[in-house]
Amino acid sequence: MEKKISAAQLREDVDFTYNKLKRFHPNLYWYITKEELDYKFDSLKASLKPSTPNEFYFHLAPIVASINEGHLRLRAIPRQYSKEELAVLKTKKPLFSLMEYKVVDDKLFVIENKENLGNIKKGTEILKINDENVSELVRKYRKLFSSDGKNQTFQKYFMNLTFFNFYTLEKGYLDSAKLVTRFDNKLADVLIRRHKKSEKEIVTDKVQTKVTADQKVQDYDANSKSYNRSFKFLKADSSIAYIKVKSFSATLASRFYKETFEKISHAKSDYLILDVRDNLGGSLTEINNLYSYLTDKEFTLVKPPEMTSKTSGMHQNYFRDKRFFSTVYRALGYPFFLAGNYFLSSKKEDKYYFREFASKPTKPKSNAFKGKIYVLVNGASFSASSVIAAKLKYEKRATIIGEETGGANDGTVAGVNNTVTLPHSKLILPIGLFLIRPNIEFDNQSRGVIPNVEIDPEFGSIAETEDKPMKWVMDDIDFRNSITRQSK
């Protein structure tokens, strides 16, 4: 990682990157012209000097990000630790993740400090980390990724999630950090250290938490002690059902929706609130199944995914990141994998398509919800969350409330990846092979899903604020109920 790579070899990596993108990305010039992208790659090659892999990363990643496809991000090489080093790290508490943060514009604030690390109060701004200005780091990291098209709501949420991931990638796992902070307009120098875990904490970490059958259905995460999916009635009369999905992980999803909509049907609920805020996406199969509970007519969720060639699907990550015995087992099925991808591909009017399950007609469930549906979204509603929101809005099946989604209204390039490794720098680039578009008429605005009711979520507020989108929904339900009562 510390060895400099020659400029000539780095130029080869640039050409390799662009050639792979042109070979596999099914809509490379969707948000940027070929002339603009050619110029960016040529300019980069002309300016290159001998660099380490991760120095090169900070030059190439912004060019890849300029394609403006939110799924398309170059990955740097994290530092590799020995078994001995990893064993020592496991005995220590994390340095930065003991506090919770919020990045607002170019500023970093502490919003939670449960262990009172460094006596830092909630609302404190961190100005510097080890003598580096946080604002400069934020601006540097923001160039490494993008949203879909012209969308501007996604970046703030993604930076909020990944700031310290980028920082650790660049600096490694630190045992201490010197901070310059500001609270009530007073500056302070604070040294935070990575403390050792107690024997009890080490033992607790080793004990695997038993997860009940019900917890599994809700996709329970024992580490964060939270549920990926949750359901509840918001009123004692069960008239308002609420479903929160943090990601479409597909883990026991069919059973969750089956049981949930049986309860909703039995309760004869009038309203359903589907909350996909901060949901970065996931399984098309899951959202196709979910949609079948939200409509009363046969539907096709997405158009057939488009590819660059009939063989594109064969290049997805079939063996990548598999253990030895798993690789041996999967090798037996490899010929069937190749044949299946080939025969599921077709050509029509000089374009190549893949037969995806969600691109086939699907019948609604017998107990599909027939009442009023509200969908809560924000800038971190991405990928599959945007697909289902776009479809529900287009079909006028739901009222979308909140902030423009981070994922595009007209689709995205994702599905499965061909992950390539650059030959000299060894940087990693996952390239989406499928152009996945909701089965709607496109608005061609290069934007996210625009809500029917736009409500500012006040992301920039450090203090806890009222959930305004949810309040709007509850007020609207109260209004509708009052009209119903008056008409009787």
UniProtKB/TrEMBL annotation:
SMART domains in alphabetical order: TSPc (SM00245)
Database matches in InterPro entries: ClpP/crotonase-like_dom_sf (IPR029045), Tail-specific_protease (IPR005151)
Superkingdom in the source lineage: Bacteria
Domain Tail specific protease: 210-456
TM annotation in the entry: none
UniProt cross-references to PANTHER family, sorted A to Z: CARBOXYL-TERMINAL-PROCESSING PEPTIDASE 3, CHLOROPLASTIC (PTHR32060:SF22), TAIL-SPECIFIC PROTEASE (PTHR32060)
Name of the molecule in the record: Peptidase S41
